[in-house]
Design brief:
There is one protein chain. By secondary structure, this protein is an alpha/beta fold. Helix content is about 20%, strand content about 30%. The chain contains three helices and eight strands, in the order βαββαβββαββ.
Length: about 150
């Protein structure tokens, strides 16, 4: 893990506070990770393409439809050509609520349709269970997607 190469964002200050605690607990401060609270997917934080990899784990299925599109468009702006955004999505489990967030089910075609105009190409990598996701956790049937910037 190279120093200065990690950025984290969340809309909730308590999640960012937890990130700071985890950084300290795991003695990662020397890696110089930066974490921000933002309500617009970092649009106001970055000035040029700088990311090779982006991970949106357990994010998309908690967002309203329009916000998933906003997130993809904003993220694509800050990805270098050839960079990949990884995101897991719910296409199988019934919709519901997790804590204060919706838990949304959408078909894969929904995510592919959002790639139009973003220079992102979507690939379905498989269900999380295929990658060793724990049997003890919900979400094993969630699909992992890779959005590659052209």
């Amino acid at each position: 893990m190279d120093a200065g190469c990690y950025v984290g964002i969340d809309i909730r200050p308590e999640a960012i506070n937890e990130a700071h605690r985890e950084i300290a607990n795991h003695k990662l401060a020397a890696k110089n990770p930066v974490v921000f609270v933002t309500d617009n997917f970092g649009i106001d934080l970055f000035s040029s393409p700088q990311f090779d990899y982006v991970l949106a784990f357990q994010v998309f299925y908690h967002l309203q439809d329009n916000l998933v599109g906003d997130c993809l468009r904003a993220t694509a702006e800050y990805m270098r050509p050839g960079a990949t955004l990884y995101a897991n999505v719910n296409v199988v489990q019934e919709p519901g609520v997790w804590q204060e967030f919706p838990y949304v089910q959408r078909p894969l075609e929904f995510y592919e349709s959002l790639c139009s105009g973003t220079r992102l190409e979507m690939n379905v990598l498989g269900q999380l269970a295929e990658f060793g996701y724990s049997n003890r956790l919900a979400g094993r049937t969630n699909h992992m997607l890779a959005f590659v910037k052209q």
